[in-house]
Write the structure tokens for this entry.
Amino acid sequence: MRETTVVDDITRAAVELFAANGYANTSVQQVVDKAGVTKGAMYHYFQSKDDLLFAIYERILTEQKANLDAIVERGGPVADVLRAACIDVIETSIDFLPEGTVFFRSMHMLSQPRQHEVTRRRRAYNDVFSTLIETGQNEGIYRTDIPRPVLIAHFFSDVHYLSHWYSPEGPEDKTLLAQQLTDLYLVSIAANNA
């Protein structure tokens, strides 16, 4: 139990400091001081600050991919599966809004191997999402006059923009917001818009 707490304490401290000061302007010493652990404890779990930044985003990637796989595994009409996937990725992005915000501001500072790993993991998610849209296109549900990568980018641009305007303390409930953004997206890619 304590091991998870140490990792969580370090990660939480890093997110707060990276958000306030920027990744480049935050030292490992500041992170361990804020987390209330030693450098040795941090280096037991994270080999470097680079590993810590990657771990912040890896948690989001892992949860979203596991959720997507479970949604696809349950099956059903492709329109229902894609809708559930869209709602999930918006809700989990809101759940991890501070982590996502920090990562997107700092991802260019990751080492090349870490950047490649992020790209690989995001591509794995994207491939499943793309297959759902392709299936819907083949069934005549989704438009085919716009390239599939553009249809996908259209959805994820809304997701990645959340950190610029959404506040959990604001009037928008995350579930309702996820449903509304999903509805707007699905209407925009519907075949009758072609």
In short: The first helix runs from residue 2 to 21. The mean pLDDT is 92.
